[in-house]
Amino acid sequence: MQQNKTVTEFILLGLTQDPLRQKMVFLIFLIFYTATVVGNLLIIVIIQVSRTLGSPMYFFLFYLSITDTCFSTSIAPRLIIDSLSENRVISYNECMTQVFALHLFGGMEIFLLILMAIDRYVAICKPLQYPTIMRRQVCIIMIILAWIGSFIHSTSQIILALKLPFCGPNMIDHYCCDLQPLLKLACMDTYVINLLFVFDSGALCSSSFLFLMVSYIVILYSLRNHSAEGRKKALSTCTTHIIVVFLFLVPCAFIYTRPSVSFSIDKMVTVFYTIGTPFLNPLVYTLRNAEVKNAIRKLWRAKITSESI
Fold it and tell me: Domains, the chain, ranges and CATH?
């Protein structure tokens, strides 16, 4: 394999070749990335300093914001820089690193969504047992297991990528390195690797989506036994989580369940879950969450008071 691999660098074609559109890409995604980092860092700080946001739900949201920041950072900066650069070369090692980071943080995002669904299930369906089941030690163990699962997933992806020999064209018709566009450049029969790719990434996305949808259907069904006020609060929280699940997992499933088939909209769909979802998550969780908004107001008032003294 190593003797056949003559390609040591790749050229990313990006989202567009048009100079005017490239400038628009630079401006739009610079704004998106900046807002993503600021929004997620704000949530991280709020959860850390606020005494009212100490429940397991916000514990998982804290790690979701960290993951969103890292996930977007693994993709967006290169897209932004490449949009104004004529030399869009990425070395083989950098490309493999991006594949690993993309799946590490993408996998962590999926596992965190599952953990948040479990938390909501226990809180709504087993409220009396909630403090015991979702105690801090258990939540920490769940986070550790999520990181281990993400690492195993990303390791399997990078192993598949490293098995690909590249001895011909080195132009990747994408704005980032991922196994799907790399398969098209490999000078070997990729049928088996395609199957393994779908079995791993495709199955992870689709099975997680089905699991989460069934979980929230069970949760929403159980709300019929709650009071009107409790039902309204739980419904608002669950709706927020369902929105995030749809925003992330539907585009993922669209991309990763059919690696051997490509469509013209693939790059835009990838943009949506790699850059759009990390940008939207802070908005979704703050605009629809009264506790987070109240914590932000308290922090802002405390800051104004401290500056006026």
Answer: 9-308 (1.20.1070.10)
